[in-house]
Amino acid sequence: MNSLPLAIKKVYMSRKFKRRNRSMFGDASLTLFLGLFGLFSVWPLVFIINNAFKPLNEIFIFPPKLFVQSPTLTNFQDLFIIIGNSWIPMSRYLFNTVFLTAAGTLSSVIIGSMAAFPLAKYVFPGSKTMSKMIVYSLMFNGTVTALPNYVIMSKLHLIDTYWAVILPAAASTLGLFLMQNFMVQIPDALIEAAKMDGANELTIFWKVMMPLSKSAWITLIILSFQNLWGTTGGGFIYTEKLKPISYALSQIVNAGVARTGVASAVTLIMLIVPIVVFVISQSNVISTMATSGIKE
């Protein structure tokens, strides 16, 4: 042991010390505690999945049961029958949703990232004030900003168009705040090196900042996607042919108690896509949340 280098000795002793402080009871307690919270978190999802396959008599049973006793596809069959009788093809609703989600998400990432770059890496008159205003804007709920958004869209003559949903999504300060806090961590030396190689600001943004901020903008894509996927158009879109699929499904759900089973199927369908997107990209989300706001 005495022949080992001093550095190796320190590492060994620190690990040994940590092992001594470990307790099997403590580890087991922590695992049990986290497991209980995990079960508590997953319970609503399990309940939604089971409800989608329950017949009506099981849905209305009291006290409610978590797991389905007699699985059935009746709820989904009824949903497809109702959709088939709609005077607007469901493919049109689906196209509207895909277009609004894709355009809103893409514009949110690009505009948020381009605005975050100068705020994160440059100091100019009013930059600190802008950063503070961005933080303050996060405190306002969407309900509070709905009326100002409507007035702005009305003045721009964009009511009852796709732009009434896309532009507010593009101007979301949440994406700007997230990208700014992540870009602050990127060393300034990389920007200086790129400038010495003759790169302009746009080249630095696309070839240096964006690749290094991959986990941040993937997280932003997920957040924006989840928000836009479930939008109904609110008070901005009135033409039936422009409404998203979530609106059509919400109309089905609101038809009465007899469609409670169909409503359960609709809830499951609307959850599937966001969950799949999140599962695929969860490693980037965890990385962003773990490192955002930490300067090296």
What's the short story on this structure?
Belongs to the binding-protein-dependent transport system permease family. The protein has 296 residues and is mostly helical.
Please, could you describe this protein's structure?
It comes from Paenibacillus cellulosilyticus. It holds the Pfam family BPD_transp_1. The chain crosses the membrane at residues 93-121, 133-153, 159-179, 216-238, 258-280. The protein is mainly alpha-helical and 296 residues long. It has two domains: 6-52, no CATH class; 82-291, Orthogonal Bundle (MetI-like fold). 72% of the residues lie in helices and 0% in strands. α4 packs across α14 and α5 packs across α13 (245-253). It is globular. Residues 1-12, 15-19 and 292-296 have low confidence and may be disordered.
* SS strand fraction: under 5%
The CATH topology name of the largest domain reads MetI-like fold
Main sheet overview: none
Q: Please report the distance between the alpha carbons of the first and last residues.
A: 35 Å
The CATH superfamily of the largest domain appears as: MetI-like
The number of distinct structural domains comes to 2
- What's the overall geometry? globular
Low-confidence stretches: 1-12, 15-19, 292-296
CATH architecture term of the largest domain = Orthogonal Bundle
Number of separate helices? 14
CATH level-1 class of the largest domain:
Mainly Alpha
Give the H and E element order: HHHHHHHHHHHHHH
Mean pLDDT: 80
Give the proportion of residues in helices: over 70%
